[in-house]
Design a protein that fits this description.
globular, alpha+beta, 4 helices
């Protein structure tokens, strides 16, 4: 089944679909922190970042089913070997192994960038993501209690870490 999926670098014409996927999570879940749709300019900025912020999509049957990226943890040289990962799979495509494929690609990319540590920050109300990360070798290393609020509900931000 997985051979139908392709993980590849983002092209500029993918950005509208990426925005569509992300904004679904903005409107419908705690997975994305914004409370309002994000404009296309944000994704264009990420795309222009290029090698400092690699962005990939997972494609199936010609449709972009998800995307992921690596971004610097902090902009200081002392943290150059630490990065954050983020990924979002379109709701109709979850549970098919695409998130795992995307994370594997991001991990390989991180190693090629000489990154040793990957971080993820996840809403405590996003149980599927917490479980996904734990299954893939991330461990909880910190929790900022009640600092977020969305849909009238407070949530913790859970930091998870994996050595690569």
């Amino acid at each position: 089944m997985e051979d139908r999926y392709l993980v590849r670098p983002v092209r500029e014409d993918d950005l509208l679909r990426i925005r569509e996927i992300f904004n679904w999570y903005v409107r419908e879940s705690f997975a994305a922190y914004p409370v309002n749709d994000v404009e296309i300019g944000f994704f264009q900025m990420l795309y222009r970042e290029g090698t400092s912020c690699p962005l990939f999509v997972v494609e199936t049957d010609g449709d972009i089913a998800g995307f992921g990226l690596i971004r610097p943890y902090l902009p200081f040289p002392s943290f150059r070997k630490t990065a954050q990962v983020s990924y979002f799979i379109c709701p109709g495509y979850t549970g098919r192994g695409m998130g795992t494929m995307l994370l594997e690609r991001l991990t390989r990319e991180a190693r090629s960038m000489e990154i040793h540590t990957l971080l993820a920050n996840i809403s405590s109300r996003n149980e599927p993501s917490l479980k996904f990360h734990a299954r893939h070798g991330f461990t909880e290393v910190g929790r900022l209690k009640g600092i977020g609020e969305k849909f009238g509900k407070r949530f913790d931000v859970v930091w998870m870490q994996k050595e690569v």
